Amino acid sequence: MEYRIPYGKGEQVVNLPEGRVSQVLLPPVTDKLRSVEELMEDALAHPIGTPVLDELVGAEDNVVLIVSDITRAWARFDLFLPILVDKLNKLGVPDEQISVIIATGKHRLNSDTEKEEIIGSNLFRRLRVYDHDPATEACVFYGTTKRGTPVWINKRVATADKVILTGGLSPHIYAGFGGGRKSVIPGVAGVESINHNHNMALTDEIGGGVNPETCIMRHSGNRVSEDMCDVAAFLNPCFMVNVIMDAEGNFYKIMAGHWQEAWLQGTQEVMKLQGVPLKEKSDVVIVSGGGYPRDISLYQGMKCYAPGAAALKEGGILIAVLRCQDMTEPPAFFDSFRYTDLKQMEMDVRADFTVPFYVAFYMCCLARHFTIILVTEPENFANARKTGAIPVATLENAWKLTEDKLKEQGKENYTINIMPYGGDTLPIE
After folding, report:
1. Average pLDDT value for residue range 362-367
2. Which of 162, 313, 333, 426 could disulfide-link 299, Cβ–Cβ 3.0 to 4.6 Å?
3. Alpha-carbon separation of residue 310 from 14, 32, 304 (angstroms)
4. How far is CA 43 from CA 38, 48, 241, 274, 292, in A?
């Protein structure tokens, strides 16, 4: 049978043996979408785990709104944040008592143009907007979590009368899910707090690599996520608004209320949006990021790796279909593939954990567990090999190579799972 897989602005085509394809996993069909105004009105009127804002915020309060940085602009703060600010104004809180802290974590600062893009021109003119500074001297110490994370929080956040978290809720490679408590850590936490928490994404022993329990779709039993919740509990924000977007960038759900309870219900909504029951793990998975712009770079495209691996047997073959016209962007990510010694790479990740560095390390570890074949442009081949992948130019070539490897392994009754939109599909066993 012929299968067509998204690739850049086009597609790749492959003929596969009948009866070998166990399942084609596609994102669930979503309900009829509602406008952001309708979703916000409903969310604010029926908060989860808290009273309505009218009972939480008074006219005398100085309110801090925590928003994500430019890397999370897809959450469209510019569309939902004005509705939240308008609500605060109606409660008697003037603009002068509302400030915005951009939760940069350890990311770079945002330019004024980027700040305006994040929250919209109107709010940018009206409100005070600050980037978070993770330096210890810019933070307040709250205590230590039971897992040993020192809790340092941004001074402006710590001294506010009321703190409201806002952000996007989506799957996350090692925290299980984004959103909620991640606005506090790494968002507005000190560098010492961030490093200690994020290092829990690795095993306790040097050389053990990625911690298998800190993975996508998992928050219970995920020590990174649970420690994030412990950090956020020290601050105990009064309210949260998290948006869930569909694959086309439309608002799917808006979760409002208690920073943990509303977030937990939000993770269930993400699974409704992206979760697909998996019949069985297969010997081969063919996965695509979903085409342009999701495969514009390897850093973006690799978001399909973890879902693809979740549908694959240990030692199986992962065929990733990613055009990657900007293969090496951003440099902070791709420069991390300079290592030839995986243990040294791990030690350096532990010493100065950043998300791009960890993602590169994760990909190198993945290449130790699976055979990864990357369908990409020929000019990317040399760089693809640095990641541990075997590069090929077409999906047909990838399949021929896969057949050879299956024969070498003596696998005659192999199975195949296909994920055309891997970045938006979460296999559920």
Report:
1. 95
2. 333
3. 22, 29, 10
4. 9, 8, 8, 21, 32
Tokens of 423: 């970045």
**For residue range 403-413, what is the model confidence (pLDDT) as tens digits?**
999 999 999 99
pLDDT higher than 90, residue 44: yes
DSSP 104-165: -TTSPPPPHHHHHHHH-HHHHHHSEEEE---SGGGEEEEEE-TT--EEEEEHHHHT-SEEEE
- Residue 331 to residue 322: CA distance in whole angstroms: 18
Contact between 296 and 429 under an 8 Å Cβ cutoff? The reply is no
166 with 84: CB under 8 angstroms? yes
Q: Are 274 and 424 in contact (CB under 8 A)?
A: yes
The reported pTM is: 0.92
Q: Is the dihedral of CA 176, 182, 185, 187 positive or negative?
A: positive
| DSSP helix, strand, coil percent of the chain (3-state; round to 5) | 40, 25, 35
Burial of 379: CB neighbours in 10 Å, binned 0-12, 13-18, 19+: exposed
What tokens were used for 142?
């709250």
Split at pLDDT 50, 70, 90, the class of 380 is: very high
Assess contact for 418 and 5: CB atoms under 8 A.
yes
Closest listed residue to residue 188, CA positions, set 161, 151, 225, 222: 151
